[in-house]
Amino acid sequence: MASKIAIIITSTRKPRVGPHVAALVHNILKAHPSSSSSTFSIVDLDAFKLPIFDEPVVPANVPARGSFIHDHSKRWSAEIASHDAYVLIAPEYNYGVAGSTKNAIDYLKNEWDGKPVSIVTYGIQGGKLASEQIKTSLEGVGLRVSATRPQLAFPGGVGPEAFAAVGEGKLGDASKKEWEEKNGEEIVQSFKEVLDALANPVEKQE
Predict the structure, then answer these.
(1) Do 48 and 77 touch, CB atoms closer than 8 A?
(2) Within the chain, which residues score under 70 in pLDDT?
(3) Which of 62, 53, 152 is closest to 105 using CA atoms?
(4) What is the reported pLDDT for 114?
(5) How many domains does the structure of the chain reveal?
(6) Could you tell me which residue ranges the NADPH-dependent FMN reductase-like domain spans (predicted)?
(7) Do the strands 96-97 and 85-93 form a parallel or antiparallel pair, or are they unpaired?
(8) Cα separation, 62 vs 37, whole angstroms
């Protein structure tokens, strides 16, 4: 049976370049032979309209000792539970993880627990700080994070490519070319680590 992989766009502000980054990563992965046994779905966090966590039950208690009451929570829970593993596409804002990314992680616990995830960040300097913060949070909710964490930096730093992304939500040709050539193998390697984790599951700790 093919593994179900969600490529999750975690940026929600407008304009945003996240969907274009996710499409690029998706194209790199599906073109590689290692993905032949996987099916990919693009999951856009913006479509779920998650407010700051507003449930009366702690995520770790769902479903054993409680359940979500809001439709947005139920939808997000069902979506994440339906996949075997994830590729998280995340921006770095102001030297850290975006609020939308952190909020989406914190909404759930058991839906994530024990599953593999690759983290791909992007930003002026590639999103190194956000990547570290996201790794800590994901491991905290039980996810198995790939050791390889690609960090996509806009060519030229604070320049036309970054301005087009931030101001217009446009991924420039120079960014696409550099990320494919410079980071493509790293993106594939990170995904291979996800596949290795899927092939070697671990028992959940009660």
Answers:
(1) no
(2) 204-206
(3) 53
(4) 97
(5) 1
(6) 4-144
(7) antiparallel
(8) 31
pLDDT at 62: 97
Burial (CB < 10 A; 0-12, 13-18, 19+), residue 116, is buried
Residue with tokens 């627990």: 113
pTM recorded for the entire structure: 0.96
Amino acid at 66: G
Q: How far apart are CA 141 and CA 134, in angstroms?
A: 11
C-alpha dist (Å) from residue 21 to 79, 112, 117, 156, 186 = 21, 23, 17, 17, 15
205 occurs within a structural domain = no
Question: How much is the pLDDT for 186?
Answer: 98
Residue 146 lies in a domain: yes
Residue 206 domain-assigned?
no
What was the pLDDT predicted at 203? 74
> Domain of 34?
3-199
Evaluate whether 93 touches 124 at the Cβ level (below 8 Å): no
